[in-house]
């Protein structure tokens, strides 16, 4: 016998459809493995399902609530990281290496690239970091960002463009310095 979805479950499903991609991108930016990001995304939406009051709140509040939960879960992840047990390499199966992207060398390179990029993002001016986060992590449109930061939409577009160009230049300079 199939149960029908409650209004609360449908609301949570709508939230998932609307925000899961951007939340997952945020989690991947802050977590070392895709699996940890996927697990944490599930935890975020389980928390949304468990929050009976969330369905009665406005869309903007729901979005901010989800982002706050994501931020808190990432913080909790790093707080509890020292308590986690490491898995011995001997227990990892050979099937992991069938996909070249999962090979340890590629994973290490990608991790180094993410760390380098994250360090470069921290070098950007505050307003540029903020508009990039709002646009690419939270998925907001330039119009929404403009309202939030108190600038005109054209200025926000210019800020994003300049931030990306500066980030690209910093990244290429860092690669040249490292002989890549």
TrEMBL record:
Keywords: DNA-binding, Sigma factor, Transcription, Transcription regulation. InterPro entries: RNA_pol_sigma-70-like (IPR039425), RNA_pol_sigma-70_dom (IPR014284), RNA_pol_sigma70_r2 (IPR007627), RNA_pol_sigma70_r4_t2 (IPR013249), RNA_pol_sigma_r2 (IPR013325), RNA_pol_sigma_r3/r4-like (IPR013324), WH-like_DNA-bd_sf (IPR036388). The keyword Methyltransferase does not apply. Gene3D superfamilies: 1.10.1740.10, Winged helix-like DNA-binding domain superfamily/Winged helix DNA-binding domain (1.10.10.10). Residues 15-83 form the RNA polymerase sigma-70 region domain. GO terms for biological process: DNA-templated transcription initiation. Pfam families: Sigma70_r2 (PF04542), Sigma70_r4_2 (PF08281). It comes from the Bacteria. GO terms for molecular function: DNA binding; sigma factor activity. The keyword Cell wall biogenesis/degradation does not apply. Residues 116-165 form the RNA polymerase sigma factor 70 region 4 type domain. Belongs to the sigma-70 factor family. ECF subfamily. This is RNA polymerase sigma-70 factor (ECF subfamily). It comes from Thermosporothrix hazakensis.
């Amino acid at each position: 016998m199939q149960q029908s979805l409650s209004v609360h479950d449908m609301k949570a499903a709508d939230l998932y459809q609307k925000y899961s991609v951007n939340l997952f991108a945020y989690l991947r930016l802050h977590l070392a493995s895709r699996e940890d990001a996927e697990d944490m995304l599930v935890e975020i939406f389980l928390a949304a399902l468990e929050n009976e009051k969330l369905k009665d709140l406005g869309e903007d509040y729901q979005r901010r609530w989800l982002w706050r939960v994501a931020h808190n879960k990432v913080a909790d992840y790093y707080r509890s990281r020292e308590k986690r047990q490491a898995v011995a390499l001997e227990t990892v199966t050979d099937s992991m290496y069938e996909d070249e992207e999962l090979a340890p060398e590629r994973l290490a390179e990608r991790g180094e690239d993410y760390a380098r990029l994250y360090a470069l993002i921290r070098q950007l001016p505050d307003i540029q970091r903020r508009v990039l986060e709002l646009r690419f992590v939270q998925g907001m449109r330039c119009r929404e960002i403009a309202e939030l930061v108190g600038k005109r939409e054209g200025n926000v577009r210019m800020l994003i463009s300049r931030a990306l160009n500066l980030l690209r230049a910093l990244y290429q300079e860092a690669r040249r310095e490292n002989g890549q």
